[in-house]
Amino acid sequence: MTSSSPRPSLSRIRIGSAPDSWGVWFPEDPRQVPWRRFLDEVAQSGYEWIELGPYGYLPTDPAILAEETGRRGLKVSAGTVFTGLHRGPDVWDSTWAHVSDIAALTQAMGASHLVVIPAFWRDDRTGEVLEPSRLTAQQWRHLTTQTERLGREVRERHGLRIVVHPHADTHIDSEENVTRFLDATDPSAVSLCLDTGHYAYCGGDSVKLVETYGERIGYLHLKQVDPGILAEVRADGIPFGPAVAKGVMCEPPSGIPALEPVLAAAQKLGIDLFAIVEQDMYPCEPDKPLPIAQRTRAFLRSCGA
Q: What is the pTM of this model?
């Protein structure tokens, strides 16, 4: 008789999911599943933690949202905001007006993280180029200094920790740009949300990033990329939105990077981390997400999470 090897212990990793894994990108869109169905199905899939997703998709009244999540056994790990801080101090007031409402709801739901996504340089629906894909030196200074300011303000006013999310078709994407951003920002004010799929999409190595910048990793998004479709996307210069519609982000464990080594590297950091599943699937048929979510949760259990 042969014995199987023991399952690794990922005791510091808290697994969850997000509206993104149900094809939700916008507060309102007739192609997206209704929010009550999302909550029902994420709980049915075996997850305990969720993110808020695009502000306004889930109820923004904390009392209503707390009642709806609580009766399904769900808790909120983070909210999400979109920013364009490379544009300098002139956008601060409009940025804070957007951030403060989301941060207040996130805080009221008992979460401690705010995921910050930089502005897209091309439109995620149409692929229209909105601005240059590379920042000037001055824009880099604006991005780093204004992000530090955001981190301090969010912490002081709402008790939340910002985690900046490298993202395809933004200015914080590749290993070069992610490490430049980290090296130029104050660790006490700015942490990183490592999205394994986006980082692979842009050519990065998630395990290397965790091992090199472990003290900056504050949050994880678990996602995989289909390498065959990614090769087509790169060859044809396809924007991120249409690439997602082609299926570039795929169901684990069929893509890259392998998630087991990433989770093992994160466990070795010796800190508690959320690892939120985010399989970009916009748009998708309403019956598609639930079985994928159930299989993904089973796969992550097999990894020890």
A: 0.95
